[in-house]
Amino acid sequence: MRAKLMETIKKGHLKIFFSYAESIGTTLAMLKAAQTAKAQGMDVIIGFIGPRICHEALVLLKRFEMLSPSNGNSEEFNLDKALERNPDLILVDGLAYSNKGGSRHRKRYQDIDELLKAGIDVYTTVNVGNIESLHDTVTEITGIDTWERIPDFIFDQADQVELIDMEPQELIERLEESNTRESVFTVEQLTALREAALRRCADRVKRLSHGQQKNSFHTDEHILVCLSSAPSNRKIIRTAARMARAFNSQFTALFVETPDFSAATLENKQRLRDNQALAEQLGAHIETVYGEDVPYQIAEFARLFGITKIVLGRSVVARKYLFGKMPLTEQLISYVPEMDIHIIPDKSTDKRYHPQKANPHWGFHIIANTAKSGGILTGATFLSLGFYRLGFTEANIIMVYILGVLLTSIVTSHQIYSLVSSIASVFIFNFLFTHPRFSLTAYETGYPVTFVVMFLTAYITGTFAIRYKEQAGQSAKIAYRTKILFDTDKLL
Questions:
Q1: Which among 14, 109, 241, 462 could disulfide-bond with 418, CB atoms 3.0 to 4.6 Å apart, if both were Cys?
Q2: How many domains does the chain contain in total?
Q3: Quick check: 126 and 22 in contact, CB under 8 A?
């Protein structure tokens, strides 16, 4: 019975009064619209109105029932009281506001979403600087980093958006005449903000029109953004989202999880989760692949899923390898020369970003791994001495050391130990088992070739052992996550 009752509750309608700057009059326009609704017989109340309103808005405000604030704080919207009062229409200023600590929801738009689900119509206000995908654009125009932002889907899914417009020069004159506030922006800045707001409204209309045409929702474009834990990645995601919106294309966010990522700091892991949440919020489909060769994994994913454009940041171009491999972009171009690759510059990436590894017991791990590799090398040496006394050939002794390097690769946690073990094996073999013994010199002309082959064989074997170990660990993670998804699907 309760379920049937809930089904009969119609979801409320959301109307957003939108502007490109403060003091244009979104709150006043909202109050005038509410007055019209009240005259038509609707039960209208005021949930929350910001403190900065004009005299005309203040006069209109007195004509409505005002909801008492939460915990006596005039800046807090009382959600519980609003649900209990259950009006036809409620006015809640500041869609992008953050609630104080201890509130049921962290953001004001989450409060409004709960009101809508309860069947209550909502009028609210927001500025262009509060739209998530436009954050970087607005920051570049104004030089101000706006912390209060809403996901784009809140704006796009609103039942109605009314643009409250005004000429920039007129806005500046209004502020000067009021003698209360001065404009912190120039005419040029306000004009740019106005253009961004107009474009965003036009974009919303375009998306709605495409949404009504099922066969033409997506173009042939499919945009891929590369995720990372870099601080600049949020700008990359927003840029890719705007591209996807402009092309009406599919949008995918890909994270290539390397074996080293398991040792990343908690800060980096949290930043990655935040970046993934932002990408999903902006409409991206999140994908994760596993592998050591990042550009190869990106290229293979792009081929398999029909990606046409790849978007990544300059911060990920930094060379990572000891012997100076090509930058990631150049490797991608070599793998997928037919694909468009867009590099998003960022002033904050002038200093190249290198993820830090979290290892609170790094000293212990170094000692433990060193002890393991040293023990294996010592054991291999004693075994080789035994074989030497029994008359075994040098080839047999070399195989013992290769086996030692292989074991070192298996029991240690980094490739550096197999490298050091390979070098040490060559020197020990030269010192103990080649003539003249107990010397690093070798009289036989073929020994240098033997040493090189011995080193390469040991190192390559150890490297493959490490990779197989890492792949086994990644396969276990994939199997575990698949099991969780399967169990969850059965419960549903």
A1: 462
A2: 3
A3: no
Question: Does residue 167 sit in helix, strand or coil?
Answer: coil
- Select from 303, 227, 212, 331 the least CA-distant residue to 271: 227
Note whether residue 227 is domain-resident: yes
The domain containing residue 279 runs over which residues? 220-349
| Strand-pair category, 44-48 with 89-92 | parallel
CATH number of the domain residue 122 falls in = 3.40.50.300
Helix (H) or strand (E) holding 31: helix 26-39
Sign of CA dihedral 484, 360, 292, 368: negative
CA–CA separation, 235 and 61 (whole Å): 40
Domain identity same for 112 and 227: no
Extract the runs of DSSP E, i.e. beta strands, from 282-353: 285-290, 309-313, 340-344
Whether the full predicted model's pTM is greater than 0.70, yes or no, is: no
Both 200 and 305 in a single domain?
Answer: no
Give the angle 395-396-397 at the CA atoms, nearest 5°. 90
Q: How far apart are CA 372 and CA 177, in angstroms?
A: 78
> Across the strands, what pairs with 250?
222
**Mean pLDDT across the chain, nearest whole number?**
79
Q: Where are the beta strands (DSSP E) in 93-163?
A: 121-127, 160-163
CA nearest to 412, candidates 449, 367, 456: 367
End-to-end CA distance of the chain, in Å? 22
H or E element that contains 18: strand 14-19
Both structure tokens of 227? 């995720």
User: Which tens digits make up the pLDDT trace of 183-225?
Assistant: 678 889 999 999 999 888 888 877 776 655 444 444 578 999 9
> What's the token pair of residue 363?
């000293």
Structure tokens at 333: 């171009």
DSSP-derived 3-state class of residue 250: strand
- Examine the domain organization and report whether 77 and 155 are in the same domain: yes
Token representation of residue 274: 């935040």
Residue 92 CA to its chain's centroid (Å): 30
pLDDT in tens, 269-291: 899 999 999 999 888 899 888 87
Is-contact 89 34, C-beta < 8 A?
A: yes
Is residue 91 located within the same domain as residue 203? yes
Number of Cβ atoms within 10 Å of the Cβ of 407: 21
Most confident of 33-47, 49-63, 67-81, 98-112: 33-47
